Amino acid sequence: MIDQIKRNPGPWILGAIVVLTTAPSVVGGSDTPLGILNQLSQRAMERNGQQMALEDALRAAQDEAKIAAARYEMGCELVVASNDPGKFTVLSPGDPVRDAVRNVPLPLGMFVCDATGNTAELVPLLDAEGRPIIGFVEFLPQPEGGTVPKVVPNPEGGEIPVVGELAYTGDQEVVRRAISRQRVKATGETPQQ
């Protein structure tokens, strides 16, 4: 047998490597140096993946902040409460936004913003299958003030614009400039729209 090992050591070395790498899982596993090394390697790979995910999220947030700041600088329409146009309200995904003077929905493609740093583009309201809903939005008055939107499907209507494509900036100076351009006093309240 020793003569065989001397003449052709390759298979024997390969076999020894296989035995040594699988031995930790057969004999006690994580207690052996190789098992500990495998655990450390696994943890390092997990941490690396988490770090990459965090870096991706940070880049996405930075890109989103640039979009939001550009919308404020371009003059997005500041959203105010329907029951008190001197007070702000917050944008919510999927909500229609109306012109408080004419009591009609703002048009598709318009950029809207709020006093907290949220901006959005008005996009078509979609059904469960991803198709635009054709109809109207009625704003029903509430006893405590404000209104609640109600979608009324109607083939004679048009696409219903709602808040979508949101982007946020934490740059409050950009927000303050937009507020001062529109000459609306900020109160910080978020009454029902």
Topology (elements, then pairings):
Blueprint: H1 2-7, H2 9-26, H3 33-74, E1 77-78, E2 98-99, E3 104-105, E4 111-113, E5 118-124, E6 134-141, E7 147-153, E8 158-159, E9 161-168, H4 172-182
Parallel strand pairs: 1-4
Antiparallel strand pairs: 2-3, 4-5, 5-9, 6-7, 6-8
What does this structure look like?
By secondary structure, this protein is an alpha+beta fold. The chain folds into 2 domains: 2-68, no CATH class; 75-182, no CATH class. It is built from 4 helices and 9 strands, in the order αααβββββββββα. A 4-stranded mixed beta sheet has the order 1-4-5-9. A 3-stranded antiparallel beta sheet has the order 7-6-8, with no helix packed on it. A two-stranded antiparallel sheet has the order 2-3. The model is unreliable at 185-193 (pLDDT under 50).
